[in-house]
Specification:
Chain lengths: 79, 354
């Protein structure tokens, strides 16, 4: 669980393209409208995350980068 | 009451290059629902650059192009990791290699088989690709395409929208899901028809230059792997060995040992992860590269090779002008220090693998 009480997924140390693969897998198991916090240290993760969301219709609620760590909140789309 | 006819659904094999983006745009224009699929073989150069994670790398150069292409046309893209199974394709390609280590015909067959499974999983009606007849020497000739079609099991559920008019009508064309007239008859290596079509369809963002993302087509990489195969049976080579062939400078030592020397900080850190099957070398008092020497059946290579390895490593550090440099060697059951004179550029040249 993240600090805000959302489920979280820590992909730090995972090599590309695993972070997006794992994110997709997790989001599929979530209820519509549920929020997942995801953390990655993959360089191009912010770009891939936004692209993946634009294609799948899921929503990036927040995305911040501190040093090499990216932290995002993603909401599963409602049909 | 008339029953509602469901919208046709297709799977796009998407690399994110110009051709697969155009094929996607052509199919979408016909009102078909599309899910993109992108297979990760473990040999994508961009993925590797991300893995190494150079501080000065530009993220926009390293983005996943398949996801980007899907985003541009609002198509969901599924990335599927096939890297473990792909090792089998590489170990025993039934249709051989291309110019380098690229088993393109087997690779296409395997990916299309995977796409067929995915098509069944998501309940799609057909699969399409961005292939252009005659564009690539190994896998896109009519004869190679015939083999690929026969082996992949998709039959007439496989569509190549960019060359469709030159090929036999496929199932979606026969039943009227796809209008053949709106598909193309591109052939050969001339890219101008694709560039014109991209303008017409408003496909503006695609990687330049096209393709070139597969390590297996890289001559330098292939040389390293073929050299590795001098010591190992093809069936013994592991993913890790192939991964290491992408990193650093490679040397073949006088007694047959293998040495990899990192070229920059991130490569040195990367090499540090592979200590279980290698001995690691670093200079104790001089900043510089990290190196790995391969162990043979868990044993260190011969002393002469270790000396040469240490002297080559010393050459790629701040101690290169010194008379002696102390190099620490650590292996799973062994730690020692070797004092050496740094190798001359000519000596390095003699051992390096080009
Ligand atoms: S270039 Fe690489 S990815 Fe493309 S078909 Fe050949 S082996 Fe497969």
């Amino acid at each position: 669980m993240s600090r805000a009480g959302n489920p979280s997924l820590d992909t730090r140390g995972e090599l590309c393209p695993q972070p997006i693969i794992e994110l997709a897998r997790r989001v599929r198991t979530m209820a519509e409208g549920a929020v997942l916090e995801v953390v990655s240290d993959d360089l191009a993760f912010p770009l891939d995350l936004r692209a993946w969301c634009a294609g799948t219709g899921n929503e990036v609620l927040d995305l911040r980068t501190e040093g090499r760590i990216h932290r995002a909140f993603v909401r599963r789309r409602k049909r | 009451m008339p029953q509602e006819v469901s919208r046709a659904k297709a799977v796009a094999m998407l690399s994110g290059g110009l051709d697969s983006s155009l094929a996607l745009a052509l199919v979408l224009r016909q009102g078909i629902e599309v899910i993109g699929v992108n297979f990760s073989t473990g040999f994508c150069m961009t993925d590797h650059q991300r893995m190494i994670g150079r501080k000065d790398a530009r993220p926009e150069k390293l983005r996943n192009e398949a996801l980007r292409a899907g985003a541009d046309l609002q198509v969901p893209v599924e990335i599927i990791d096939i890297s473990t199974e792909y090792m089998e394709v590489l170990r025993r390609p039934r249709f051989g290699f291309g110019k380098n280590l690229n088993p393109c015909v087997d690779c296409r067959i395997f990916m299309l088989q995977k796409a067929r499974e995915f098509m069944a999983e998501v309940g799609a009606d057909f699969v399409f690709t961005g292939e252009v007849l005659g564009q690539r020497p190994k896998s896109q000739h009519r004869r190679a395409m015939r083999i690929i079609d026969a082996e992949c099991g998709l039959g007439d559920r496989l569509v190549r929208p960019l060359s469709a008019k030159l090929l036999a009508p496929t199932w979606p064309e026969k039943v009227g899901i796809l209008d053949r007239d709106q598909l193309k008859g591109f052939h050969g290596r001339d890219r101008n028809p694709q560039i014109e079509l991209a303008e017409q369809l408003g496909v503006v963002d695609y990687p330049q230059p096209a393709g070139g993302c597969c390590y297996l087509t890289d001559a330098n990489y292939a040389r390293r792997v073929f050299d590795l195969l001098r010591d190992h049976d093809r069936t013994e080579v592991e993913q890790e060995d192939l991964l290491l062939c992408k990193v650093g400078r490679h040397f073949r030592l006088p007694r047959g040992g293998r040495l990899i020397v990192g070229r920059f900080e991130e490569e040195n850190l990367f090499l540090d992860r592979f200590r279980s099957r290698h001995a690691r070398l670093v200079a104790t008092a001089h900043k510089g590269a990290t190196a790995l020497v391969s162990l043979r059946d868990g044993e260190l290579p011969e002393a002469e090779d270790l000396e040469v390895a240490a002297s080559v490593l010393a050459r790629y550090g701040k101690g290169r002008g010194e008379a002696r440099v102390v190099v620490e060697l650590s292996a799973p059951d062994h730690e020692t220090e070797i004092a050496v004179q740094p190798a001359t550029p000519e000596a390095c040249e003699a051992w390096i693998l080009r």
